[in-house]
Each structure stands twice: as C-alpha cells, then as structure tokens.
Design a protein that fits this description.
This protein is an all-alpha fold and 122 residues long. The protein has helices spanning 2-27, 34-46, 48-68, 73-95, 102-120.
Length: 122
C-alpha cells in the first residue's frame, strides 16, 4: 500500500504541473508592470483549470504525508523525484509539444540511474 501513496504523490504532482503549464501558455507572457502582473496573476487564479492544478498539488501533499508513514524519506523522495522527472518530461512532450533533445534524454537517464543507486542503499 505504501507505494500507492508514492504513486499518488507523483500522479497528482505531474497533473498539476502539466495543467498549470498548459493554461499559463494560453494566457501568454507575464506583463512588465507591477499592476499588470498582479492582474495577470489574479486572472490566472480565476481559471478553473489552474484551480484544479492547485487542488491536485494539495492532494499530492496528502499522499506524500501518507507515504511518510510507510517509508524513510531517503527512500521515498528519490523515487518521487525520478518519477516526476520521467513522467513530467514524457507527458510534456506528448501533450504540450515540448522538444526532446539528446541532453534531456541523458539527464533523465542519469536521474533514473541515481534513483536506482539510492534505492539500493536503503
């Protein structure tokens, strides 16, 4: 059951990040003026999808707290970081049409290998 909590943390975090990026892309660039920035950010908060991204982050925190009752943080956190890096990158390419480069792929592979070695040390 403990790994379900880790998966929930990853799932809800990835969802939130992708939704926020998608909607923020649709709103455009952050304006230069202080008042314009404040209005821009306020309008973002009124978007239901943005709200769902924040709600998703809130849910992820509950899954994280549950995971902390089952695992040492030194075991769970690397798994979450690796899962976030892989899934966010893959889904960003698929849904947000972000680019893939050799260096990005190598970076993901280094993260995965690091997660593997960290988990072996537990």
């Amino acid at each position: 059951m403990g790994y379900l909590y880790i998966f929930g943390t990853i799932f809800f975090t990835v969802y939130g990040q992708l939704i926020l990026k998608w909607r923020i892309n649709d709103f455009g660039a952050l304006p230069d003026g202080v008042l314009e920035k404040a209005l821009f950010l306020f309008n973002l908060l009124l978007d239901p999808w943005i709200f769902s991204g924040f709600a998703s982050a809130f849910l992820a925190s509950f899954f994280w707290m549950a995971a902390m009752t089952k695992f040492d943080v030194s075991h769970a956190y690397p798994i979450i970081v690796g899962g976030l890096a892989i899934l966010t990158s893959v889904f960003a390419v698929i849904f947000l049409k972000e680019s893939v480069s050799f260096l990005k792929v190598m970076g993901i592979l280094f993260i995965v290998s690091g997660v593997y070695f960290l988990s072996k040390g537990s």
